[in-house]
């Protein structure tokens, strides 16, 4: 078979009915893995290229010797397909190029649509209004978005139930599940792990907490923060409450490659106000 190299954005366009323009085209695509494997019996994950364009990749039962790890750069070969509106590559092979690559920061959004499909996105200031168990969880958010919880992540029903009544910031991969043309409905937000769902305490936290983002998270060698205020210092504590790092925030990025894998608590200070966030070190 002859696979033609493409940029991901060149093969993810749709016609007026939301059908992929490149159905059946044999492609070779390169990108960085985002998230986890949503199909342990085979492969199902997302790659995003240097242009911040993403696509799903899928194999029903063959893993091609590859174990999914976020941050891997891979080259995939296969044909362009579409499942319930979601454009994807039906895999013929996966080639691992490198590991530990940086991820793009999530894009802040207020609505899910075709532009958010297979992109890393973030929504802030939402609450959970309904939860339905459907081979995973279909979680309705207060802004009308559907958050889809796949049980192949570390997120379970007890975790979601514990978020009831809280105001949240949610990061995840944009998806779609629309069973018929036109494919213009059924957009979803799929968190990758528990760290993608953060409680915003609007009473106790300062206003700048709502627009503060950490990335990548989980992290391997560095953690960066995007915020609207000037930070004065940062402290990092391990799961035992021991302080393992303290810096003045001359830059909004810190190197953590020397730390053991685990869950840490990051505290960011601006003047007399501060916020805390969970950080996962891989």
Describe the structure.
The structure is a single chain. By secondary structure, the protein is an all-beta fold. It is 2% helix and 46% strand. It has one helix at residues 157-161; strands at 4-5, 26-34, 43-48, 54-59, 73-83, 86-98, 107-108, 120-126, 128-133, 137-141, 146-149, 167-176, 187-190, 197-200, 213-215, 222-226, 233-237, 243-248, 253-255, 262-270, 273-281. Strands 7, 8, 9, 10, 11, 12, 13 and 14 form an eight-stranded mixed beta sheet that branches. Strands 2-3-4-6-5 form a five-stranded mixed β-barrel. The radius of gyration is 19 Å and the shape is globular.
Secondary structure elements and their pairing?
Layout: E1 4-5, E2 26-34, E3 43-48, E4 54-59, E5 73-83, E6 86-98, E7 107-108, E8 120-126, E9 128-133, E10 137-141, E11 146-149, H1 157-161, E12 167-176, E13 187-190, E14 197-200, E15 213-215, E16 222-226, E17 233-237, E18 243-248, E19 253-255, E20 262-270, E21 273-281
Parallel strand pairs: 1-2, 4-6, 7-8, 11-13
Antiparallel strand pairs: 2-3, 2-5, 3-4, 5-6, 8-12, 9-10, 10-11, 12-13, 12-14, 15-16, 16-19, 17-18, 17-20, 20-21
